[in-house]
Amino acid sequence: MNGVAKVLVESCEVVVTMDDAGAEFVAGSILIEDGVITWVGSGAAPDAEGAERVDGRGTVAIPGMVNTHHHLYQAMTRTRAQDQGLFGWLTELLPVWAGVNAEWERAASRVGLAELALSGCSTTTDHHYVFPDGVEGLLEAEIDAAAEIGMRFHPCRGSMDLGRSAGGLPPDLVVQETDTILAQTEEAIERFHDPEPGSMLRIAVAPCTPYSATDRLMRESAELARRLGVRLHTHIAETTDEEAFCLEKFGKRPLDLLEDRGWLGPDVWLAHCVHLDGEDVRRIAETGSAVAWCPSSNMRLGSGIAPARALLDAGAAVGLGVDGSASNDAGDMLAEARQGLFSARAVGGAGAMTVREALRVATRGGAACLGRDDIGSLEPGKRADIALVGLDGLSFAGAEADPVAAVLLCAPRRVRHLLVEGRAVVREGRLVNADEDEVATEGRRFGRRLAGKD
Question: How far apart are CA 301 and CA 87, in angstroms?
């Protein structure tokens, strides 16, 4: 599959297109030419002569999933602050993260990206906002890791300029000067951002939170992003503590504060949005803003359950995010979609969300969050990002009534194959472009060092 101009994924149990009509093809196949889907359907594919063939028997084909919120560097600090809410968790971990360097970033990124790929994720963002003074190569390290694994990557150049001495939450040693942030962010965009269709690398502008960024940084970051034509991302409305902090410090609720700073619009996607009222939901939808829904992280930290159903019903774009591996402790997109499905039902009843709606959030919804209309569905003209979920083995025995529902309702497992731009990233459940055992060994070595065990 790598470097081959024409590829035929054939004889899948079901091809789940996630197109506007929700078409599904039993005994379906997908023809790819030069990284683009040219045909999807049942039966014999036209013009497939000379194509490399990928055996889809016993699999469900879904669009490669899109992860809309992550902090890859946190993969080296899993299982910490186990019983803390967000503010306590941050207070414990921010001083640890102040030691991040390029070696740490590379080891963590390889672990996190490998996890995502093995779970069927073809495109991911990353929100990196810790840039200790004098440390270089952090953004470059994760970009290199994404290229090695073979994934589409949307790293966000994050930032914090409001330290504890100025009334913010983060320690002063992890914040930067505002002018430095803006200059380095613009440099990253000019150096790395590729706006073309099929792009494998795009940059977004992403001050961390309203309680770690000054008014000036928020406003000028929005101006910078819009001048250069890139997207905006931040955390918002994650906890009740955040709302109390914003009311005390700024006299505004979190979403009001964002709107006042010019941070609602069709070029914005917002992480979490757990604590929204009906008016907040309406404004997010009406402004075309999108939401990265992070159910596992929100439950792990006791933050609550975001109103995903209300946002979807209002017409907002909603995608899924695994969030940082220190607040989820995993980076599995199939598991995250399952968690989202169940959390929506936990608050809204059994009819609150269907399996196919949850899969759509994980694919089309994520693509919309990132402003991509070239991925997220399996239809002619879209990029060939395809996950093949195998239905063999104990986990799926007895699920023959609906193979598509089995993808989420049964126990999540690694995908059999993953194609990105028509190229193999996972084959027969193993990474193609990196040695999984070496990635894990290096990650454990670095994790032991951080834990003081080496």
Answer: 10
